[in-house]
């Protein structure tokens, strides 16, 4: 598959992943599927916007660029509209790195939040983080430490896990585009001006 078409496929795959990231992050503002009265009762990691900023905006930018990439037309080099294919593929590498870092940011915040656990109303009638070092992941009996919001543990765990999986897939796709972009930059078939002269174009 040519590098341009490969980039388009990668861009097409990244778009729905960014949508999942957006939606998962938005739903985290409604713990247990309910509107919370005080925003201070939300887990801190929700405000890091891992799905909106990291897996969302910072991945959406390279995804749109990948979708717009075109293959070079060898006989239309030297001032033609497609002569910048090398530069476009090189630019896609830079944007892929940005997307990789954005997804990496979402991955780190999601992993940290899963280990830390959600913020909830504890038995002492105070809001805080009752879990330590992810102990609640292996012992479901500890979930009783959270009184409110209802089902907040499974809610946060599910959504942050989705963000974690989305981030991994996005990092993988962006890493593939880095390799694909390098191939498109170094191994592009167009001989540019030499080719154009062969067709009587200077």
Radius of gyration: 23 Å
How many discrete structural domains? 1
Structural class computed from helices and strand pairing: mainly alpha
SSE order, as H and E?
A: HHHEEHH
Strand order of the largest sheet: 1-2
Number of helices: 5
Helicity, as a percent range: 55-70%
Shape: elongated
Major sheet: size, sense and barrel closure? 2 strands, antiparallel
Average predicted confidence as pLDDT: 86
Note the beta-strand portion: under 5%
For the record, give the distance between the C-alpha atoms at the N and C termini, rounded to a whole number: 30 Å
- Total beta-strand segments: 2
List low-confidence stretches: 72-83, 189-202
How would you characterize this protein structure?
The protein is mostly helical and 202 residues long. The chain has one domain (3-198). Helices cover 58% and strands 2% of the residues. The chain has a two-stranded antiparallel ribbon. Mean pLDDT is 86; it is low at 72-83 and 189-202.
Keywords, please?
202 residues; two-stranded antiparallel ribbon; 5 helices; 2% strand; disordered C terminus; transmembrane helix; Transmembrane 4 L6 family member 4
């Amino acid at each position: 598959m040519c590098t341009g078409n490969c980039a388009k496929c990668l861009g097409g795959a990244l778009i729905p992943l960014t949508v999942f990231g957006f939606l998962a992050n938005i739903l985290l503002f409604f713990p247990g599927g309910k509107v919370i009265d005080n925003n201070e009762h939300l887990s801190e990691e929700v405000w890091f916007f891992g799905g909106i900023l990291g897996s969302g905006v910072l991945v959406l930018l390279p995804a749109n660029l990948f979708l717009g990439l075109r293959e070079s037309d060898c006989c239309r080099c030297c001032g033609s509209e497609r002569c910048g294919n090398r530069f476009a593929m090189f630019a896609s590498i830079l944007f892929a790195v940005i997307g990789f870092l954005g997804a990496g940011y979402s991955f780190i915040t999601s992993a940290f939040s899963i280990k830390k656990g959600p913020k909830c109303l504890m038995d002492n009638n105070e809001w805080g983080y009752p879990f330590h070092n992810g102990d609640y992941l292996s012992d479901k009996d500890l979930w009783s430490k959270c009184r409110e919001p209802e089902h907040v543990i499974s809610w946060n765990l599910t959504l942050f896990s989705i963000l974690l999986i989305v981030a991994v897939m996005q990092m993988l796709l962006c890493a593939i585009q880095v390799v694909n972009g390098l191939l498109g930059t170094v191994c592009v078939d167009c001989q540019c001006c030499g080719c154009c002269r062969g067709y009587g174009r200077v």
